[in-house]
């Protein structure tokens, strides 16, 4: 049985008629860039999250970059980001000329360790970007309190957390702005790249909307030096269709995670933990193992695709060598990078497939234990092998 890490084709086939109709509307209207389908999605997604405004852009990375620019963050400023996240979180900070300042990961939640943020704040700090990683919300209350105490902007990176909730309220509705990605493999994925900036502030929304479209509100009239980072009409149409199913898909992801938890209980794996404040939407199902690479090889041999999110913490990436960080600076992020393994999880995954993944994992650990016992029995008291 071959089990893909993500099966986008299965999702597409289930919605084919609705998506074909939506794309046909775009073709009929010839609104290929922005247009009424993007505007429709912006209204629907803002209402879904609980924000006043949504501005569709070309990617999640573009969303972060435009949000930072709209907030006036640039050269000379510092922005606090997790050491354990996808590269784009820090990259967007660097691309506006600011400096990313890393904070270690929480051992249980994988998100930013809120107890270590304050020590990273100084006179140059302008903002904190908590990342709702793998579908798990960051612990926002203490982050928002720090923002209020020190006059810092809180920018939510919700690229992996569509529909996740913090203390009963959807993430993306807490910070001064929030940023989403609609990369195809996300819980809410487009048919290509896509992203959005959400905010309750009309002026911020206006600036982001201008910045995405060459700094203009009217064609050929440019108030700002902007960019070409607009959402395509087809992506808006596809996302509107898929948004209707997001809550249902998230419930399926949660059910799959629960089944994994039952079937993998008792193995040496460290299983993901839903924090007390969180409604986790399991964009990724991330386990930890000291034998990660060998386990991954065994799963691959059995036809099970896996991922590693992420194998190198951002502070150790060659691109950030100039910041002068060394191994050991953020030990928990480094430890996770060496141990994490993402197992297949998506709404269309079946119980049979989950059982097979768990079976391969259990067989691997049983074989490892047999090998350990055999090695121990084959050694003399002084540790040498018997002849």
Shape: globular
Structural class: alpha/beta
Distance between the termini: 42 Å
List unreliable stretches of 5+ residues. none
Average pLDDT value?
Answer: 95
State the share of residues found in helices, binned by percent.
25-40%
Radius of gyration: 23 Å
Biggest sheet descriptor? 7 strands, mixed
- The CATH architecture name of the largest domain reads 3-Layer(aba) Sandwich
What tags apply to this protein structure?
alpha/beta; 387 residues; seven-stranded mixed β-sheet; Aspartate Aminotransferase, domain 2; single chain; Aspartate Aminotransferase, domain 1; PyrdxlP-dep_Trfase_small; 12 helices; three-stranded antiparallel β-sheet; transaminase activity; globular; 2 domains
Can you walk through the features of this model?
39% of the residues lie in helices and 14% in strands. With 387 residues, the chain is of the alpha/beta class. The chain folds into two domains: 8-243, Type I PLP-dependent aspartate aminotransferase-like (Major domain) (Aspartate Aminotransferase, domain 2, 3-Layer(aba) Sandwich); 246-377, Aspartate Aminotransferase, domain 1, CATH 3.90.1150. The strands form four sheets. Strands 1-9-8-5-4-2-3 form a seven-stranded mixed β-sheet, sandwiched between helices. Helix 2 (16-29) runs antiparallel to helix 8 and helix 9 packs parallel to helix 12. The radius of gyration is 23 Å and the shape is globular.
